[in-house]
Write a structure and sequence with these properties.
The protein is α/β, with parallel strands linked by helices. It is built from 22 helices and 15 strands. The structure holds one RNA strand.
RNA sequence: GGUCUCGUAGCUCAGUUGGAUAGAGCAACAGCCUUCUAAGCUGUAGGUCUUUGGUUCGAAUCCAAACGGGAUCACCA
């Protein structure tokens, strides 16, 4: 049980024995005592005044006396303006340290029997990944790791959007202009090659539209419908849906190029998936469920034969689920995929890592599934994140105004190399170790940068001001880890020793207090689907430790007891940093 | 226009179910490497928490309105 939890329980029973009133443990507020006051934790008494019928100061005073009877937990107290400041027995900290410093599982929670699927990445196969996708991927991966650490069984899923008009656009442009170029023949990654032709399609399309406007004098909207390259793409989509052999072969060939490129990128990012879903094999699903819903009267049909759901009671609109000709729309397909996922895994909940532009869509999806009585419905959670924007506005693959994911990773690794070489601290590294280090630092900085912000907030990234390696960054935290590793290796075996009489300094105590809450930080972060809480926490731990280190000698400590406690504290800090960073997909180097 | 969302230091962000004098990093300025890794540490400066009203012992936090950004409201995906 955590220290704050112990305090709450003690306070609850103290209140009962003093006033014969029962207060829920969760209604007792425990804060860390502000540094300007004496004490470790503060109990706020204002909320009890009504129930107990006394002044805050009196309650705090009486409660303090009562709590102090439990002398294994508390050592002293003081009362200031209704705040009861409690000091904790040093033995509590020693006990915590002794119990955890060798526990590599510290932070992990026992299995809770819950199974959860997290769908993330979910790329389109017509263009390479860009910076915005990185936020999705890192967020999804971190969320999976966080859920695992807090006791869930996790299925990492990826739904690949591998069909549709956008794919045909790349295909037709390649067919028209590539002269048979392949990733091998011109030596670029397959996803980039395909993406280049997607951009080319749009360039050609634009100029065709302009030509038509100039020659025929019609509106832009009309001209867009006449552009020959778009007509060709649409024709290709029809052929694809009809299963035309040549079209399917080209589609498969180009998609394979893209997959090869994606897998390379995923491998470098260090992310993986347990289950791939392909839209080409799920896009027809959902129709039967919709028809069943029609029979049940949950849905209704309009005169033209189209099928709708009426969500006006929920304050939303009517939503189309089947066109007049009986074909599916995007929503239909998502209904089908949701039920397919559930049929495959019977998970308790299903997390969708998708940008906030789809908030409405996801809200509607969940509502429809609930109305249809599908068992997967209630478990759906949309982990919505804000877009990554450039100072010039949103990134658009179509217009080529993106920061490419592969380029970004290359650049970060190059910066890591440059910084490392300038610092000149890598004597004795061989070539392979150096490459590994640059990758660990560069990708770490990138991941941390994207994961340190609350997911639901949009973020602006300025490529000109490249990502920093100082301050609130992964390299800073990684540096702390490397420092500790170095100290510990010089210290040798820590061994067993009893140090109950060692008086902790205030900085040491702060470090321990911070480390002690790690498991509850993870629980909170998982509950709120917010890996940024882990980033912030890990940074705090590193910061606090560095402050400690600068004025506490470890190897040359004043006493053996001090040395012993500080080594254990260092070991535990190292573990928590490595564990926390790992949840974010970031490695911790032993040297840097 | 409807719905949702955001507004905290020059910039990027924290701020745990309402709690004491609102915190970090970057940028700026001033210091600290004969001693465990200076990718570090310490200090200075920087704030009407967009505004107004409300709820109460107490509001950056909850409610309402206004202002300002963003998203969305397709027989596109």
């Amino acid at each position: 049980m955590s220290i704050t939890q112990q305090i709450k329980v003690a306070a609850q029973s103290a209140i009962f024995s003093l006033y014969q009133k029962t207060i829920a443990v969760d209604d007792i507020l425990i804060n860390e005592t502000k540094p300007e006051f004496e004490g470790d934790f503060t109990l706020v008494t204002f909320s009890f005044t009504k129930l107990i019928g006394k002044k805050p100061d009196d309650i705090a005073q009486e409660l303090g006396v009562e709590l102090l009877k439990n002398d294994s937990l508390f050592s002293s107290f003081n009362v200031i303006k209704g705040f009861l400041n409690l000091s904790i027995q040093v033995s509590v900290y020693h006990e915590f340290l002794n119990n955890t410093w060798q526990n590599v599982q510290f932070g992990n929670h026992a299995h809770n029997g819950k199974k959860v699927m997290v769908e993330y990445s979910s790329p389109n196969t017509n263009k390479p990944l860009h910076f915005g996708h990185l936020r999705n991927i890192f967020l999804g991966y971190a969320m999976c790791e966080l859920l695992k650490a807090t006791g869930h069984e996790v299925i990492k899923a990826n739904l690949i959007n591998d069909r549709g008009i956008h794919i045909c656009k790349s295909m037709i442009a390649w067919q028209l202009f590539a002269n048979g170029a392949t990733p091998e023949s011109i030596g670029i990654k397959g996803d980039h090659l395909v993406g280049d032709y997607y951009v080319m399609f749009n360039d050609v399309f634009k100029s065709q539209v302009e030509d038509i406007i100039n020659t025929k004098g019609i509106t832009k909207e009309e001209a867009e419908k006449e552009a020959s390259i778009l007509l060709q793409a649409q024709e290709m989509l029809r052929k694809w849906e009809a299963g035309d052999a040549d079209t399917m072969a080209l589609w498969k060939r180009m998609n394979d190029w893209v997959y090869e490129g994606f897998y390379k990128s995923y491998a470098r990012m260090g992310v993986d998936f347990d289950k791939m879903y392909y839209e080409s094999s799920t896009y027809l699903l959902g129709r039967d469920i919709v028809l069943k819903g029609l029979e049940k009267g949950v849905l209704f049909k309009k005169e033209d034969g189209s099928v709708w759901i009426d969500l006006t009671d929920e304050g939303l609109d009517q939503k189309l689920l089947l066109r007049g000709d009986g074909t599916s729309v995007y929503m239909t397909q998502d209904i089908g995929t949701a039920t397919l996922k559930y049929a495959d895994f019977k998970m308790d909940s299903s997390v969708y890592v998708i940008g906030d532009e789809q908030n409405y869509h996801m809200q509607v999806l969940k509502l429809i599934l609930q109305k249809l009585g599908e068992p997967c419905a209630d478990g759906i959670y949309h982990l919505s994140y804000g877009m990554v924007e450039l100072p010039t506005g949103r990134m658009k693959s179509r217009e080529g105004t993106v920061v490419d994911a592969d380029d970004m990773m290359d650049e970060m690794i190059a910066i890591a190399q440059k910084n490392t070489e300038e610092l000149g601290k890598v004597d004795g590294f061989n070539e392979a170790e150096l490459l590994k280090l640059y990758q660990t630092l560069g990708l770490g900085a990138l991941k941390f940068y994207l994961l340190r912000v609350d997911p639901k907030k949009k973020m602006i990234f300025n490529p000109q001001e490249s990502i920093d390696f100082h301050g609130f960054t992964a390299p800073f935290v990684q540096f702390t880890h490397a420092r500790i590793t170095s100290i510990l290796s010089k210290a040798g075996e820590i061994g067993e020793a009893n140090t109950p009489n060692y008086t902790l300094t205030s900085v040491e105590k702060n470090c321990l207090k911070l480390l002690e809450i790690y498991p509850s930080v993870l629980l909170q972060a998982a509950k709120e689907y917010n890996p940024a809480m882990v980033s912030n926490y890990v940074y705090q731990v590193a910061k606090e430790y560095n402050s400690f280190l600068v004025d506490h000698s470890i190897l040359k400590a004043d006493s053996e007891a001090a040395k012993h406690v500080r080594l254990k504290l260092s070991q535990l800090t190292k573990q928590v940093i490595a564990h926390g960073l790992k949840l974010l997909g970031i490695d911790s180097p032993d040297r840097m």
